[in-house]
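Box 3.1 — From sequence to structure: Adenine deaminase
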Amino acid sequence: MPVPKAELHLHIEGTLEPELAFALAARNGVTLPYADTDALREAYRFSDLQSFLDLYYELMAVLRTAEDFTELADAYLERAAAQGVRHAEIFFDPQAHTARGIPIGVVIEGLGASLDRAEERYGISTRLILCFLRDESAESALATLEAAKPYLHRITGVGLDSAEVGHPPAKFREVYEEAARLGLRRVAHAGEEGPAAYVREALDVLGVERIDHGLRCMEDPSLVDRLARERVPLTLCPFSNVRLRVVDTLAEHPLRTMMSAGLLVTVNSDDPAYFGGYVGDNFDGVRDALGLTEDQLRELARNSFEASFLEDDEARRARYLAEVEAYRFDAAE
Ligand SMILES: Nc1ncnc2[nH]cnc12
Ligand SMILES: [Zn+2]
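Predicted structure (token representation):
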């Protein structure tokens, strides 16, 4: 069994595997502009974040009913469990669905039906994080949070994703203030393609507790010092960074340098159906490409639970951390 871990940066729509996409397309009478799953996989060659997002939003057309969202989450949880995931904090993009006429309640209740039985079926505890699309307007983000109010019992926090450059965090000050008033936790993608200044802005203007990606903080040494001192978690996604050309190769990924700088980093899969692997595959990939030691892998697993939003269940966090300490790498596989 792989090392126990939490996954903290995972877009549920990014777990849509080609086989499920075609099955849902057939069920819902949606025509995809690809002949078959092989032709679709051929399209998974990305030049940057936007070229990925174009396909990611296009394929969402197959998700129409609550059952579709339940099936999508079930498929992710099953794969995640097999890769050692014990806790998952799952992003979803409501505006990508409401824009197609799918009510937000269908999305949340569909995902919720899967998450309600995740512990019993897959041994995974879960949280749901509602993300705003940063290339949509601030008003649209506010309307989305308003529409989510009947479902807040299912939502732990808010996030910010989609095309980063040109959409700085400060654009969403008001909706993050409202989210804080509602008692929601706050995270944001920053420093993936955008500059280190966006990471600072996410902390200072949006009050986020974790940064998703955050890679480009490395261009600003005083920001690195601050992130390390304040123990702000960074949810890294190594396979994603290679596929979206944020880094050239896995061997050049700054993960190790970031750990050495004292940063609280975690390893995650982002959009595993598109980027060549789930979170355990990302762990194996960086272990091999960067020559990580067992101690470093254990540190990454420990970090994932420390960075998780388990403050409402510290007993569970302690149990997971004990599992990490008891794990024997030499007995694996
Ligand atoms: N890596 C990523 N960056 C920004 N938005 C996303 N939405 C899904 N994956 C994303
Ligand atoms: Zn992401």
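Summary of the box: The mean pLDDT is 98.
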